[in-house]
Amino acid sequence: MYDVIILGGGPAGLTVGLYTGRAKLKTLLLEASHIGGNAAWIDQLENYPGFPFGISGTELMDNFHKQAERFGVETRMEEVIRLESLPEGKKVTTTEGEYRARAVVIALGAKRRELGVPGELEFKGSGVSYCATCDAAFFEGYPVAVVGGGDSAVNEALFLSGITSKVYLIHRREGFRANQTSVDKMLANDKIELKTNKIVIRIEGEGLMQRVILQDVNTKEEEVLPVEGLFVSIGLVAAAEFLEGVVATEDGYVITDEEGRTSVEGIFAAGDIRVKRTRQVATAVGDGSQVGMIVSSYLKE
Fold first, then answer.
1. Which CATH number applies to 2-111+236-300?
2. Could you confirm whether 272 is annotated as catalytic?
3. Do 151 and 183 touch, CB atoms closer than 8 A?
4. 135 is annotated as an active-site residue
5. Which one is catalytic: 134, 151, 251, 287?
6. Side-chain half-sphere of 73: how many Cα atoms within 13 Å?
């Protein structure tokens, strides 16, 4: 029996662990794939306070993890498949076994949204990627495309421009949601070519992906774009389908009050998995610190 089980090892979950660990609560953190979540794949974080010249997501998340472990947080690399609230406590089932706790914090974050077009699944891992920092090395010297218009898409295009021969940024609108500093850098980069007012309607290739078919949103005219890689960055979706019916959700995201309490007593949520407007490393850390303190008080009471 643990005092706290944290589902998810991203910045929110690791911050919760730091606080519950320092409160001398027996804490278990469960992570399915890699410590740090999406933040670990960010090449350079320039908007996280305290690092005036930026820091890689991998390094920052490694420091988060070491700090949580220093205060006794136990980490297991297991995928959570079920969460139950029972009279005797909370029961967490993973692909490896079962665990029980007095309280559970859901910090599973969000995952990249898929395009949902023909060829996407066929060429996933064979040209189609959802993480530039993970897969950019496979496309060194080749032309690639990025889909999206937010911060992630623009930053990935900038990152890829230093590795690939050419980057096309495909966006369904004329303007960008990304911060203006990043947009200005992109516009000044002669290796990045914009394909605005266009959408991807099909991905094609023989064995490996070799081209994407674009369609103009206004004229409906199609265009063949020869590229070796396609990086999809069109937003996020909640990363915890099994929570449906366990706690109150909205579009897969967990509904909480301002202090991270869910609809079920003893179950809390922090970070990108919550219904919220802003999803950044800094906001995840803010969530994690608050929930860490709330959980500690809840268990002591």
1. 3.50.50.60
2. no
3. no
4. yes
5. 134
6. 31
Catalytic site residue from 3, 131, 151, 216: 131
Same fold, 2-111+236-300 and 128-232: yes
Question: CA 274, CA 252: separation in Å to the nearest integer?
Answer: 9
- Report the distance separating Cα 52 and Cα 32, nearest Å: 32
131 in active site? yes
Tell me the two tokens of residue 167. Answer: 């980057």
Tell me the CATH number of domain 128-232, given options 3.30.70.270, 3.50.50.60, 3.30.450.40, 3.40.50.300: 3.50.50.60
- The Cα 210–Cα 12 span in angstroms is 38
Cα–chain center distance at 132: 13
Q: CB neighbours (10 Å) of residue 222?
A: 12
- Provide the residue type at 144 as one letter: V
Q: What is the pLDDT of residues 86-141, one digit of tens each?
A: 998 999 999 999 999 999 999 998 888 899 999 999 998 889 998 887 788 899 99
Give the contacts of 244 (CB within 8 A, at least 6 positions apart): 252
